[in-house]
Amino acid sequence: SFRRRRARYAAGYGSLCVVRMWTNLESTRLTNVFNVQMTALMLPFVTAGMAKVLLKEDIHWALPPTLLASVVASVLAICGQGLSPASQRLSGALGWWDAVGIALQLFSVVCSAAVKIALKGTEDVLGKGELMLAQMVTTCVVMLPACLIFDRSSLVALTQLDTAGVAAFLGLAIGVYLVA
User: Which residues, in sequence order, are CB contacts of 15 under 8 Å at separation 6+?
Assistant: First the structure.
């Protein structure tokens, strides 16, 4: 039925958002934020490719050369970690965990692109407000217990916020969704 289909879409969308968030967080734990950000720059290209395949959208002629330049620049930046000896001393050589973190971030980029495609691909079944609600509920149900188990220091910091701090935290948490 249509209701069941809506529930499946909402649960799938929320689950995809959770996987994207988790892989993004884990990648920053395993490698430098620089490596994560350089990998995250691939998002527009991955989104365009997925839109072409899944939604049959046209790809602008400038996308392939731009993608090539971006990939080459990202690979050079990540592998080189800067050209000066000082920057190499600060960042160190790439290791196994860096590779795992970069791979997780790349998977996060694919999930993020899928989230964007899902927004457009489910317009006939779910509205943007319903998708936002599905994302918030699913994220809360999965990530809150995980944070309570694995990150007690953040929970302690949240319990010590004064009224202005709580208002700012909630304003940011909700404002990001409303503005985005």
Answer: 138
Cβ contacts of 56 within 8 Å, gap of 6 or more: none
Full pLDDT tens readout for the chain, 180 residues = 778 888 888 888 889 999 998 898 889 888 888 788 888 888 888 888 899 888 888 888 888 888 888 778 777 776 765 444 544 444 556 778 888 988 999 999 999 999 889 888 787 788 888 888 888 888 888 888 887 787 777 778 878 889 998 888 888 877 776 665
Predicted structure pTM score: 0.69
- How far is 86 from 107, CA to CA, in rounded Å? 31
Confirm if 9 and 122 have CB atoms less than 8 A apart: yes
Nearest to 27 by CA among 135, 125, 106: 106
